[in-house]
Design brief:
By secondary structure, the protein is an alpha+beta fold. Helix content is 22%, strand content 37%. Helix 5 (467-483) packs antiparallel against helix 6 (488-502). The longest helix is centred in the first third of the chain and has 25 residues, at 2-26.
Length: 587
């Protein structure tokens, strides 16, 4: 009888364990949506979290992301964060993957958070819909938090920079305020020295006005809208949590707030001339390393440096000067290395200055008088609205014979108008002291070679990898990762990881903060910042379907390959931009 009872107990516990484990193994993954509050105002941000309970397939779900397409019609989605957690309770392991987003409503009313889907392999799971009540923004708060934008010229030419001014009116306690200017179809550069904050009395109330100015260069002609600017930050929430309905234990918490401006209509005029160089002033100058007033010798090169300076121009490339140099094949041999281009905003100035510098080596091939023709660079004066020319007048060179150069005789059948071949003959001779020095050097080289052969044990060689080599390695790694996906969110995370590694920064920096640290001192830095803005527009804006992902990745990798490797300063190591406007000055 006891044997039968023991057998039944064993069967019972075996069946119980089978049921428990089979339930755990067959449990389907679930996607749960949650809002931090069912009601907000239109100028506030709601926090949406999506939690995946997937103990068996969590490894496969890490490479997937929820489809947020249904959200973008009613909300602007930003601030994505991903967190993975593991809990062990009573020897049972549970794993969760959580995505969190910030939702800025585009309208007020009763809005529905639709069911969001997530693909895990061949399986698709969906969350339940949620309701969010969006109340109109408080009029008092709308007056206390207001963002106005103006432009210095709403009808500029293509590539003509204009001033874009943001004025933020606010009072009360604000934290971590950040300005977000428009980035679609424009190149933008902050004029940090013009930023200021001052007090103004509006409707009998003392209001702080923070003014920021940017230099904006339009990249598209025609009539179009410059998207609204934004101020993003933290504001003390009027809603409060409490224990027991209020009293001593009540508390307020800061919540993200987004203040938007109106859009600006631009009518960008097409180029009026080709090649197109709009500016307020253009100068073309030259320098000669060898004076050309006297007589020059055949076969001895002279160096001519041309400098083209365009004030009030955008960041577009200046016309190349080597194509403007007339090469006279039978009189001169012209050599020109790559030109040096630079664009910057001089200290204390409100406009950009573009500079192109190129050196030319001119070698006379025969004696006589050589006339260098004038050089003319056309440019469009945006102040007078007319075509002008930057000119260097023609130059006259007097070239004499050089005994050290021998002209090879031309065959009788050769046309005398053909180019003349020049052969340089140099007489080499050594005196007694030079022979002695040469003999000593050869003897020392022989002794060094013998000693190296007699070395008993070779010493290990330490090879230090340069910063350029490191940059090439992580660029190769990034290309491999980029080639494996076209998902914009994943590309954004890969780019953030790469920039933090490349600039020796913690991975906690956001991509928008990294664009401030990168700066726009070089063309590569400006291209990287611009391509980051293009990615954000495609990911969070209305034109996400118009992005050519393959072309964008090609341009980004080309720009990243030319990024300088900085030496972080104390401010950079702390993760703060070099210049920050204080939006809440002490009064």
């Amino acid at each position: 009888m006891m044997i039968v009872i023991r057998t039944l107990y064993k069967l019972y516990f075996s069946l119980l364990l089978f049921v428990l484990f089979s339930t755990e193994l067959l449990a389907a993954p679930t996607l749960t949506a949650h809002l931090d509050s069912p009601q907000i105002t239109q100028d506030q941000v709601a926090f949406l979290t999506l939690t995946l309970d997937d103990p068996q397939q969590l490894a496969n779900s890490r490479s997937s992301e929820p489809d947020l397409t249904p959200l973008r019609e009613l909300f602007e989605v930003s601030g994505q964060q991903v967190m993975e957690s593991t809990n062990v309770i009573n020897n049972r392991i549970s794993r969760q993957l959580t995505w969190s987003y910030q939702l800025a409503p585009k309208q007020s009313g009763q809005l529905t958070i639709p069911a969001l889907s997530l693909k895990i392999g061949d399986t698709e799971i969906k969350s339940e819909p949620l309701l969010l009540q969006v109340l109109p923004a408080d009029k008092t708060q709308a007056q206390s938090l207001r963002l106005e934008v103006t432009v210095s010229n709403d009808s500029p030419y293509l590539f003509e920079p204009i001033h874009y001014t943001m004025r933020f009116y606010h009072h009360g306690e604000l934290r971590e305020m950040q300005a977000v200017p428009p980035g679609d179809n424009v190149l933008i550069k902050p004029l940090t020295h013009t930023n200021k904050a001052y007090q103004q009395v509006i409707n009998g109330e003392n209001v702080t006005v923070s003014e920021l100015v940017y230099l904006v260069t339009p990249l598209k002609s025609g009539e179009w809208e410059l998207s609204p600017a934004q101020i993003i930050g933290q504001k003390i929430d009027q809603r409060s949590g409490s224990f027991g309905g209020g009293g001593f234990f009540s508390f307020n918490t800061p919540r993200p707030v987004t203040i938007r401006s109106d859009s600006v209509s631009l009518k960008v005029k097409s180029p009026a001339h080709q090649p197109w160089l709009p500016a307020t002033k253009v100068e073309l100058t030259q320098e000669w390393e060898t004076p050309i007033d006297g007589e020059l010798s055949v076969g001895l090169p002279i160096i001519r440096t041309l400098v083209l300076t365009a004030k009030g121009s955008g960041e577009q490339a200046l016309p190349p000067l080597d194509k403007l140099m007339s090469e006279q094949a039978n009189l001169l041999r012209v050599r020109a290395p790559n030109a040096e281009q630079n664009w910057s905003i001089p200290r204390g100035e409100n406009h950009g200055v573009a500079t192109l510098k190129q050196r030319f080596s001119l070698t006379p091939l025969q004696a006589g008088t050589i006339i260098l023709p004038e050089i003319k660079v056309p440019w469009w004066n945006v102040t007078t609205d007319q075509l002008e020319w930057a000119i260097i007048p023609e130059q006259t060179l007097t070239v004499i014979e050089n005994p050290a150069f021998v002209l090879s005789p031309a065959p009788e059948t050769v046309n005398h108008a053909a180019p003349v071949t020049v052969q340089y003959v140099q007489q080499v001779a050594f005196n007694l002291w030079q022979y002695g020095f040469l003999s000593t050097a050869l003897l020392a080289l022989f002794i060094a070679l013998v000693l190296s052969r007699l070395s008993l044990k070779p010493k290990p060689v330490k090879i230090a990898m340069s910063s350029t080599a490191v940059s090439r390695l992580d660029t190769k790694w990034l290309w491999q990762q980029f080639a494996a996906t076209n998902d914009l969110s994943q590309l954004r995370r890969l780019l953030q990881r790469y920039i933090c590694y490349h600039w020796r920064l913690p991975l906690t920096h956001s991509l928008s903060h990294l664009t401030q640290i990168i700066g726009q001192d070089t063309e590569a830095q400006r291209n990287v910042v611009h391509l980051i803005q293009v990615l954000d527009v495609a990911l969070y804006g209305k034109e996400r379907e118009n992005l050519d992902v393959a072309q964008w990745k090609h341009e980004l990798l080309s720009a990243l390959a030319h990024l300088p490797v900085p030496r972080p300063t104390a401010g950079d190591q702390a993760g703060s931009p070099a210049e920050v406007l204080l939006l809440n000055p002490a009064v």
